[in-house]
Amino acid sequence: MLAFIARRLIQSALILLGVSFITFALLYLFPADPVRQIAGRSATPETVANIRAQLGLDQPFVVQYLRYLGNLLQGDLGRSYLQKTEVGTLIVSRLPASLLLMAGAIVCELMLGLTMGIIAAIRRGTGTDNSLMIVSFIGVSAPQFVVGLLLLYVFAVQLRWFPIGGYGTFSHLVLPAVTLGILGSGWYSRMMRSSMIDVLRQDYIRTARAKGLGRARVLFRHALPNAILPIIAMIGIDVGIFMGGIVVVESVFGWPGIGQLAWQAIQRVDIPIIMGVTLVSACAIVLGNLVADIASLLADPRIKVR
Amino acid sequence: MTAVDTAPAAPPPVEEGIWTRLRRRKLALLGLLLIAATLLGAIFAPYLTQFDPDEQLFEGLSITGAPMAPGGMFPLGTDLLGRDLLTRILYGARTSLIIGLLANGVALLIGTFVGVTAGYFGGILGGILMRLTDLMMAFPALLLAICLAAIFQPSLWIVVMVIATVNWVQTARVLYAETASLSQREFIAAERTLGAGHMRILFRHILPHLVPTIIVWGTLGISTTVLLEATLSYLGVGVQPPTPSWGNIIFENQTYFQAAPWLVFFPGLAIVTLALAFNLVGDAFREVLDPTQRGRT
Amino acid sequence: MTTQEILSPAAQVAGEAPVVLSVRDLDISVRQQGGVKPLVIGLTFDLRRGETLAIAGESGSGKSLTSLAIMGLLPPPAVHVAAGSIIFGDVDLTKLAETKLQAIRGSRIAMIFQEPMTALNPVMRIGDQLVEALRAHEPLSRQAARTRALEALRAVRLTEPERRLSQYPHELSGGMRQRVVIAMAIALRPDILIADEPTTALDVTVQREVLDLLRDLSRDMGTALILITHDMGVVAEMADRVLVMQSGVMVETAAVGQLFSAPKQAYTQALLAAVPRMGQGREASVKPLWRPLVSIRDMVVTYDLKGGILGRTQSRVHAVEGVTFDIHPGETFALVGESGCGKSTIARALTGLVPHQGIVEFDGETLGSTPAARFAASRQMQMIFQDPMAALNGRMRVGDLVMEPLVIHGIGDVASRRARAEALFDRVGLTRDALDRYPHEFSGGQRQRICIARALALNPKLILADESVSALDVSVQASVLDLLAELKAEMDMSYLFISHDMAIVENIADRVAVMFLGQIVETGSSAQVFGNPQHSYTRRLIDAVPHPDPSRVLPVRAVHASDPPSPVRRVGDPPKRLALRSVGSGHLVASEA
Amino acid sequence: DGHSAMDPDAQYGGNITITYKDDVATLDPAIGYDWQNWSMIKSLYDGLMDYEPGTTDLRPGLAESYEISDDGMTFTFKLREGVKFHNGREMTAEDVKYSLDRVTDPVTQSPGAGFFGSIAGFDAASAGGGEGLSGVTVVDPYTVQIQLSRPDATFLHVMGLNFASVVAREAVEAAGADFGKTAMGTGAFKLSEWTIGQRLVFEKNADYWREGLPYLDSVTFEVGQEPIVALLRLQNGEVDVPGDGIPPAKFMEVMADPEQASRVIEGGQLHTGYITLNVNIPPFDNVDVRKAVNMAINKERITQVINGRAVPATQPLPPSMPGYTDGYAGYSYDVEGAKALLGEAGFPDGFETELFVMNTDPNPRIAQAIQQDLSQIGITASIQSLAQASVIAAGGEADQAPMIWSGGMAWIADFPDASNFYGPILGCDGAVQGGWNWSWYCNEEIDAMAIEADSMTDPAMVDDRLKMWSDVYMAVMEDAPWVPVFNEQRYTMKSPRMGGADALYVDPVSIPVNYDYVFVTDVQ
Ligand SMILES: Nc1ncnc2c1ncn2[C@@H]1O[C@H](COP(=O)(O)OP(=O)(O)OP(=O)(O)O)[C@@H](O)[C@H]1O
Ligand SMILES: Nc1ncnc2c1ncn2[C@@H]1O[C@H](COP(=O)(O)OP(=O)(O)OP(=O)(O)O)[C@@H](O)[C@H]1O
Ligand SMILES: [Mg+2]
Ligand SMILES: [Mg+2]
Ligand code: NI
User: Fold this and answer.
1) How many angstroms does the Cα of residue C339 sit away from the middle of ligand 2?
2) Which of C254, D38, D241, D249 could form a disulfide with C259 if both were Cys (CB 3.0 to 4.6 A apart)?
3) For the whole model, what pTM was predicted?
4) What's the total number of domains in chain A?
5) Residue nearest to atom 18 of ligand 1 (CA)
């Protein structure tokens, strides 16, 4: 197990290296000049050149990249061009919120998606099944901004069950997590449905029933843990999908995560922040996958560590 | 002694075309109908509406600049520039169908190619391809899309390419796993012992088994893709205005969901319906193409 | 033996014992597109306390459905009991509510399913699955249930029962899993135990152990046993009474001795005739030829198991370890041995599906490993697999499948290929119109015929038949074996026949090699090996085979449990090679320690 | 002086909550140049000069008084005594010099360094080396003298810019590169809490040198809030002023409700939205084409599209800016005339071109309205809706963007002076690669006029100078490098408990509100 984790970590490091290179190259090619943004409207060409030299942006691409990598290895993500703050500090101050939001979203999508999937599987072919699957479609197709605002309007403004945006307590978390999770719950309900249908056909379910177990026990103790196995691996992938969603959800709910940081940085070509956020989210994705794989390992005793 | 051999379980095969079998499924028919309606709406948009999609009508805005609610001259209302929403949705179907079919199709193609190649050949080539997939997976798709779209000037075709580049990853992962397990199946071993080459095994024997998965991901991908285009438009790197697409109509107007709900509701409905339609048809095709399902409903 | 003390006193003699289960006019039907189709019709029988009733019959005759109906586990909603009653004690099980049935299931009537590999929940510990079964019916504490579970595991003579409790199903071999399933079924001392093909998936030696176990248990606990099987050998050894079914109808029922000695119905007679029997081995038709068709020298196949941070090979499966034999033209050479001994691996190595070390000559030429060489060899060497369903691409028409080798090797045009396929179908006894159907539309036997037709398409010199008849009903098996024999005679083909079924091998092989852990322990002509087995392992295999002869007195054996030895070894620690010595013309035996 | 603005009804105490969508990037006055932090920095720091609250009238700030030499080249500022930084140390002339040296030092990377270009020694300072501005000298602890290298009529305004704020050297040196996340000035408020990405809290500076100010005990800024959500919260009583204004989607709803509408304060702002026509790219090199475009744009319709939240513009300067040419009608909307003019210019059938626009609402919408207007006279403009940085980059290249709609990146004056709309965006200096003169318009004659106007530093000649600027802009309009489209109005909405004159809520230099002077009416 330890060897497996170690091997995966090495692989992950290589993936991160690749991500850093591609991002750096893309930003290098990005048709906007960060120095202009820094220097302001009234700057003289000399000032611009001076700043460019200070930031090392006059160097060839490879030099720039290697220097970035060198600093990165020392844990230095650089300073924001426009905020002049350490990118590391900015990210550290915002990351916990994003991670909390993602965790909430995963819980929410699993709860919604799995419940819907299980019910649909048990009631396979009935009206319940069909309507649940249509609901899952709406979940997959609904724009998050609209879902977020709608939830906010109904549950926070009208019903006052939850605060209107903000961060801090559990009740702050509910609406953003639901908004972020709705998309995934659509996917999960479909996957859970087919996985469950598959499992319910298995011999061991028949064995369990032959033992005289009750319906609930067969369902939750035998079918569910097996049906959920293929889904665990998907949770890792979710982290990647969420990275896109948090930009929208965080801004709707005023959630102080890295999504907003990234969005502002992209608008202003604040390259160190974009790089930093990209790397951190890549880390999160890679770790998410790793955790999901380890969870699969733990949940499924059959998988041997290869 | 040979006499005891049992008769075949199935009834004598009544040869039916795929079409005949599809027709028996009401839901699939409904799906086909919806897709056809969308297609026809897109193609014949100029004949279905008296307006031009980009025409900002004087009557389309109130004196204070508010859009018109559905009814009267504008069956689905107007947008914030006083354009007829129905017209824009009809014309938007063109863009959205191109994105949904083409971008999604290319993504499926790439994903299938990568996943199947890696899963079937394995080894170093498979390792490299799957690491590439992991890399793409770890890469924030949206950022990639923004950069690509900014580096090339945004246009419909660039958007198609961008979406395809971003969206193949999951298909590749899923098909990789499936191909890897298919390759271990006995009928593939049997093919090998017959001397079949890789291409033959891949195209004649593996791909047909992947069709259901490809259909599932393809149909589910339609709504994701249409929405991704919308997100790109929102970030300013999508299909450029005033060209309408269902996604960008929603995104342009989403803050007005309360003041002018029709601007979000109708294009949203269009996306859900199209996705649902494709899925119904996809489901049906999946079963119809599966010979073990012949003769059942 | 501690189990003796725990289990109930010896059972009464069956016959006078009271009836525990009474099935009357049972009809089972399925709702389908075209209406309701009957699957089991008018089944009537009684089961007495302590009695073993065997239900025999070919595949699809309704054996499993009957047992599921008794359990109330017919797959809803399509399949259902249409008429009749199943009286257990004084209740009619067919009318009972689900919750009441749950109380009976597992505690009063228990069931053992055919496939031990899939019958246990893969993600639950053995102990939990046992404890759960107990606690579903008796108000036991966790601890008490655990103690009972341990008792049950001991009762089925599982080694290291404490450790088993915390293991997962995949960590156990098939035989061990089947014991667990049995333990689960007997833990609550049910009145009735239904065993649906409990040993079909097991090796002969393990089958032997499981059968002995079942017999002991039913005797000790007075449990009535319904044993479903298609193996007449098992029937003969186990049953007090036999019920033969065909197409959902009971054909004949009689006491076991009576049925075997004087079967009344034609179907029963045919069934019994089809059963391969041991001890009728024929004399080998070995032709003294100067050049063997296939010559294998010191073949070694290992599978690397990787591990560690760098993914280096840490251990190896020594699937085949230095195997040497020849196959002569026109000869049937058989490989026998228990699961995992490397039989299939040899076939796979021959066809190039796995890389091997050592020299393999085919028709005088060293079998190359280049794609071109393999391609050329594939014309001469064809394989027939164990599971015809798995070996046929379910999404292609069988006609296309049979024409596939012709297309691959670029032989003929569309019309001539079709003609060839038709001819082949005629030859293997299938109708021509079957060409346009899909594999799932055929029965198992028919499918295997399709596989044979496909293998024949290129007129190969050698056919590798890997467990090609194991999955088939006896009668079908017999017909397929006959077909193979005919073909051999007609086309002067050679077979490498792989099987674990000693009786079949004895009947059809010219020469035999017995394998154990990747090595040959004994080889010689069929008569030499079966008539005069020299190696203890060979003898054990032969002894384990159930004989379709109820009068045979079974040797007294102590039922014991043993864990199968493993071919997995660390890198740099290859297994010891066995040296073969000759004990007479071509009869080679490995020396035993 | 300050007493004139004191409100007799004002109550002391209380806290108000302001929201913003974007995070506050920095509070370093040398760096901060955003919509949100501009007014925050104003309350944390002071410069030598200041404005009367709610107006564009200059008044002395940290300088008690100032003298201008007769040639207008030397400014001598007499500092107030006893002004303390938030750390308790007294502010002196050394601090003023340090602050000016710092902002012009390229190591600081200040986007405002260019404003100080008229101070002697600026070129040497901006070349780096850290010697500082030779033109700024400390005469005594309470006197600073600033020598200019050229006459600059706007210099006092420059001294009122945030970039000229006086910072405490020891705080800058202690915080190093992270100074922007702290604050150490002399302003009415001091920074008491900053949770990145969530909230900033300003706390009253009890020692503030303007007696009686500020009224509020504290101001809380909550960032990362979508404007539409901020408005919902305002309606819910959780927010006092939504810093990003009333979102377009809610504007009509708010205005339709008299109670809410009564809390909306409307005012002008020093803003012009315009289309640049790149005079280097044919056919916009033809002045008739540019005029035709000017005539083709239906400005009324565009203001209607943004719910009438602007007034149509006729010239580069907004109406509230001194120097605005009253009575100038500009190019009036005349499709037929435009067509005719275009025909004369040799494009009777129009042409194809591109219109660049920043991609946040409502800019793409406005661009589409412009597009439709252009199509009326045969011009097919395809829209390039891009991220802000990309549009700016395209504008800075001589041959990339034929037309740019300035919205979102538009010129909101740094200081209320007519010259502010010229230099970088219409003058030759800006027409360089990477510059901000996106029409690449460079008329040497007009440039000369502009320099002349800015040399008129004599206070007595203020009106002549404004007349001259008016002439400059009229001359520019003749060449029509721009289409001035509208001047956006500001609508600030406040909670019912907010007090203070309306002007404070549309303060031209402190947006959205002048925190120093507003108060709440519900203090217990
Ligand atoms: N769920 C079902 N729906 C329709 N038909 C079924 C179903 N289950 C079984 N059958 C049919 O019922 C018949 C009897 O099946 P059953 O499983 O009882 O056979 P069996 O005697 O146990 O055969 P085997 O030896 O192969 O296990 C078969 O023809 C089978 O095709
Ligand atoms: N791909 C593989 N990787 C690792 N081990 C393998 C692989 N294939 C087979 N083995 C192992 O090699 C050994 C021999 O397998 P093989 O399939 O040849 O046995 P067999 O005699 O055909 O058994 P059976 O009767 O069960 O078919 C077994 O222990 C098996 O687990
Ligand atoms: Mg069965
Ligand atoms: Mg095998
Ligand atoms: Ni005073």
Assistant:
1) 8
2) C254
3) 0.82
4) 1
5) C62
